[in-house]
Specification:
Strand content: 5-15%
Order of helices and strands: HHEEEEH
Distance between the termini: 13 Å
Shape: globular
CATH topology: Arc Repressor Mutant, subunit A
Structural class: alpha+beta
Strand order of the largest sheet: 1-4
Number of helices: 3
Helix content: 25-40%
Number of domains: 1
Length: about 90
């Protein structure tokens, strides 16, 4: 999966009220998933995510998403990238 597809999949999962699965579900490394989560939050598409990184090499130590929610901006972005059947385009 490419990064944009993973981001859109995360937004779709949140919009359906489901929990975000782990990095293995998306076939990406934990560091990449952490980067994507941080990017989505910086862009204002989600809120409430926590990515904890190690101090030595800045690698992702923990991704906590229990309180993560999609924002109205995230919903709009997702809608702009779905087809009429709700599939990620």
């Amino acid at each position: 999966m490419n990064k944009r597809t993973v981001e859109l999949s995360i937004l779709k999962t949140l919009s359906q009220g489901n929990k975000i699965p782990g990095s293995l579900h998306y076939f990406v490394e934990k560091n990449i998933l952490g980067d994507l989560i941080e990017n989505l939050e910086e862009e204002g598409f989600i809120e409430g995510a926590t990515v904890i990184r190690g101090s030595y090499d800045n690698s992702v130590f923990l991704i906590y998403l229990e309180t993560t929610k999609i924002t109205p901006k995230g919903r709009e972005f997702l809608e702009d990238h779905q087809d009429s059947n709700g599939n990620i385009a």
